[in-house]
Amino acid sequence: MTTELGIDKTLSKLFPQCSGSAWEMYMTGLNGGKSQYEYEFSKALKDHTYENLNEDTKQYIANCQESNRIAKEKGINLRKTVDKDVMDRQIREICSEVTKNLPDARTEDEKKVVFD
Hints:
There is one protein chain. This protein is mostly helical. The protein has one domain. The chain has helices spanning 11-19, 22-30, 38-47, 55-74, 84-101, 108-111. Helix 1 (11-19) packs across helix 4 and helix 2 packs across helix 5 (84-101). It starts with 10 loop residues before the first helix and ends in a 5-residue tail after the last helix.
């Protein structure tokens, strides 16, 4: 079941929200540099409908948006963070909080990687 926090379902707005989010950066790193939701998102863009996204992708988007909300609340701007160690720590901190607030969008294998 997807927990939605007022998701803006305009598909053209979803990609920018996800691509710069801590959740997307973390998950892309776990998946060898490949975006987890890229295929479903591309397919939905062709259909022009949010409802055509599968539940996992909807949850992934919700987690991206929640990570953006948390970053904003904490005053963290990952696009301006230069130091990789600082950025990694900020990403882990944000993602850890996301999994406390929303269902975890990671696969069972991905869940084996524990946030610090």
